[in-house]
């Protein structure tokens, strides 16, 4: 099975006596429970609770590595530095470009990605290039398991953590203290108001381009993200999709009829009424 090199990923090292407490009180991820061999998703939110930056994070020695899209690296580093104040913490950009993701018989001793672990798949992440299989193989695995990524499946500053399943895949800690945007996230969790969720889209033909609206009749219910042939991901209003499915009303992406399903590992289901969001 594949070992895929993702070239456009960069690393920020966070170290120092207060590295863990600094990050724990700033980002969405619960670092106290983060295992030594585990990589979890995380985000730095706006005060309004939307994802400003996203990343994977794991322990490395006495500090942490944040793996993020190269286009986000400098902005994330600047924002972390802004929040440092007098905390005993240091930041550095690692002189390593890209990450290798590997699974099945090519899995390494690198940290295991909690997003795929939820689906029963051991996928490891190792900094640098240690494989050269086609990135399309990783995309197909992501899509099949409902793992969304920023820039392809959602735009930064436009999605809440619940929209992209961070509440279910290890990216949100609900037993930790305050962090930026925590009040909004906590309110969504306790009130069950999450309506937008990542779904797996299946078409009866190749899906149209990313960014195409999914519609019920003339009404949009979501937007198509990553695609691989007739399969793709989208973030949809699951209340509206559930109503359409219950009524037998087609869901379409342009002229292509599609079906949508929630990732099996999520435990979510489509509500059939607008006030029955499952979250």
Residue-averaged pLDDT: 94
Q: What is the rounded distance between the termini?
A: 34 Å
Question: What order do the strands of the largest sheet run in, or round the barrel if closed?
Answer: 6-2-5-4-3-8
Q: Which residues form runs of ≥5 with pLDDT under 50?
A: 274-279
In oligomeric terms, what are we looking at?
single chain
Shape: globular
For the secondary structure, the number of strands is: 15
Structural class: alpha+beta
Characterization of the model:
Helix content is 20%, strand content 32%. It is of the alpha+beta class. The strands form three sheets. It has a six-stranded mixed beta sheet. Strands 10-13-12-11-14-15 form a six-stranded antiparallel barrel. The protein has a three-stranded antiparallel beta sheet with strand order 1-7-9. The relative contact order is 0.16.
Q: What keywords describe this structure?
A:
globular; 6-stranded antiparallel beta barrel; 279 residues; alpha+beta
């Amino acid at each position: 099975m594949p070992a895929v090199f993702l070239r456009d990923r960069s690393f920020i090292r966070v170290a120092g006596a207060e590295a863990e407490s600094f990050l724990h009180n700033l980002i969405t991820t619960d670092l106290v429970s983060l295992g030594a061999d585990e990589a979890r998703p995380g985000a730095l939110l706006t005060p309004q609770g939307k994802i400003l930056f996203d990343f994977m994070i794991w322990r490395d020695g006495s500090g942490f590595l944040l793996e993020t899209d190269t286009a986000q690296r400098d902005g994330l580093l600047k924002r972390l530095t802004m929040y440092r104040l007098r905390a005993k913490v240091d930041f550095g950009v690692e002189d390593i470009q890209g990450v290798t993701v590997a699974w099945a018989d090519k899995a390494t001793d690198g940290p295991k990605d909690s997003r795929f672990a939820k689906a029963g798949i051991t996928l490891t992440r190792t900094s640098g290039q240690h494989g050269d299989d086609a990135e399309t193989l990783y995309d197909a695995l992501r899509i099949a398991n409902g793992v969304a990524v920023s820039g392809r499946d959602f735009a930064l500053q436009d999605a809440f953590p619940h929209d992209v399943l961070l509440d279910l895949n290890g990216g949100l800690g609900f037993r930790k203290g305050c962090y930026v945007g925590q009040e909004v996230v906590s309110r969504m969790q306790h009130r069950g108001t999450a309506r937008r969720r990542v779904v797996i889209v299946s078409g009866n033909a190749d899906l149209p381009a990313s960014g195409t609206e999914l519609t019920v009749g003339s009404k949009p219910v979501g937007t198509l993200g990553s695609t691989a042939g007739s399969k793709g991901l989208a973030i949809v209003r699951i209340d509206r999709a559930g109503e359409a499915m219950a009524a037998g009303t087609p869901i379409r992406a342009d002229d292509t009829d599609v079906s949508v399903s929630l990732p099996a590992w999520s435990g979510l289901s489509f509500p059939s009424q607008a006030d029955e969001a499952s979250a």
